[in-house]
C-alpha cells in the first residue's frame, strides 16, 4: 500500500465516520476528504502514475456517491455543501492579508451562498433559502463596512 493509498483511505474513513454523527460533520469531512483526494490526484497526474490516477478517480466517485446518499436528494447535499463552503469563505475573508485576498474570499462566499440558496429552493426549503439570503445580506454589509 502506498502513502497515497493510506492518506486516501484515511480521508475516506474520516468522512464516513463523521457522516454518522451529524450533517454538519459529514459535510465538513466530505469537503476535507475530497480536497485530499484532489491533491493526491494532481500529484499522481504530475508524476505520470496512470494506475493511481484511475484508482483515485474511482475513490472520488465513490466518496461523492456516499456523500449524496446521506441526504434525501442531490439538491439537499448541495445545500449543505455550499452553505458550509460559503461560511468557510466568509471566515477566510477575515484571515486575508490584503484587500484583494479579502475580495476573492467575499466573491467565493457570495457564489457559494447563491448556490446554497438555489439548492434550498429546489428542495422546497423556502425557510432555509430565506435564512441563507439574510446571511448573505449580512456578509455583504460586513464586507462593505470593513473591506471597502
What composes the largest sheet? none
Radius of gyration: 17 Å
Count, helices: 6
The number of distinct β-strands equals 0
Structural class: mainly alpha
Helical amount among residues, as a percent range?
over 70%
Mean pLDDT, nearest integer?
84
Identify low-pLDDT runs: none
How far apart the termini lie comes to 51 Å
Give a brief description:
This protein is an all-alpha fold and 148 residues long. It has helices at 3-21, 23-46, 50-69, 74-95, 99-122, 126-146.
Which labels suit this protein?
about 150 residues, globular
What is the secondary structure topology, with strand pairs?
Layout: H1 3-21, H2 23-46, H3 50-69, H4 74-95, H5 99-122, H6 126-146
Helix pairs in contact: 1-2, 1-3, 2-3, 2-4, 4-5, 5-6
What does this structure look like?
- The protein is mainly alpha-helical.
- The chain has 6 helices and no strands.
- The chain has helices at 3-21, 23-46, 50-69, 74-95, 99-122, 126-146.
- The termini are far apart.
- The mean pLDDT is 84.
Amino acid at each position: 500500500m502506498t502513502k497515497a493509498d493510506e492518506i486516501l483511505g484515511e480521508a475516506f474513513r474520516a468522512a464516513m465516520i463523521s457522516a454518522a454523527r451529524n450533517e454538519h460533520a459529514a459535510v465538513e469531512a466530505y469537503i476535507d476528504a475530497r480536497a485530499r483526494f484532489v491533491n493526491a490526484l494532481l500529484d499522481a497526474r504530475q508524476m505520470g502514475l496512470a494506475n493511481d490516477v484511475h484508482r483515485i478517480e474511482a475513490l472520488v466517485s465513490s466518496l461523492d456517491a456516499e456523500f449524496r446518499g446521506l441526504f434525501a436528494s442531490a439538491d439537499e447535499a448541495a445545500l449543505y455543501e455550499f452553505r458550509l463552503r460559503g461560511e468557510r469563505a466568509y471566515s477566510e475573508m477575515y484571515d486575508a492579508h490584503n484587500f484583494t485576498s479579502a475580495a476573492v474570499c467575499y466573491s467565493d462566499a457570495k457564489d457559494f451562498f447563491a448556490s446554497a440558496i438555489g439548492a434550498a429552493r429546489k428542495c422546497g426549503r423556502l425557510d432555509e433559502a430565506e435564512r441563507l439570503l439574510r446571511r448573505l445580506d449580512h456578509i455583504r454589509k460586513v464586507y462593505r463596512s470593513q473591506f471597502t
